[in-house]
Amino acid sequence: MKKVLTIAGSDSGGGAGIQADLKTMTVHQVYGAAVITALTAQNTLGVQAVEPVSKEFVAAQLDSVLSDINFAALKTGMLAQKEIVAVTAQKIAEYNLKNLVVDPVMVATSGDLLLEEAAVQSYKELLFPLADLITPNLMEAKVLAGIDKETQVEAEFLAKKLHAFGSKYVLIKGGHFSNPAQQSKKAVDLLYDGSNFVKFKADYIETNDTHGTGCTLSAAIASNLALAYSMEKAVEKAKVYLTKAIAAGEKIGKGNSPLNHIYQLDLKKESRQG
Ligand SMILES: Nc1ncnc2c1ncn2[C@@H]1O[C@H](COP(=O)(O)OP(=O)(O)O)[C@@H](O)[C@H]1O
Ligand SMILES: Cc1ncc(COP(=O)(O)O)c(N)n1
Question: Which residues form the Pyridoxamine kinase/Phosphomethylpyrimidine kinase domain (predicted)?
Answer without folding.
Answer: 11-260
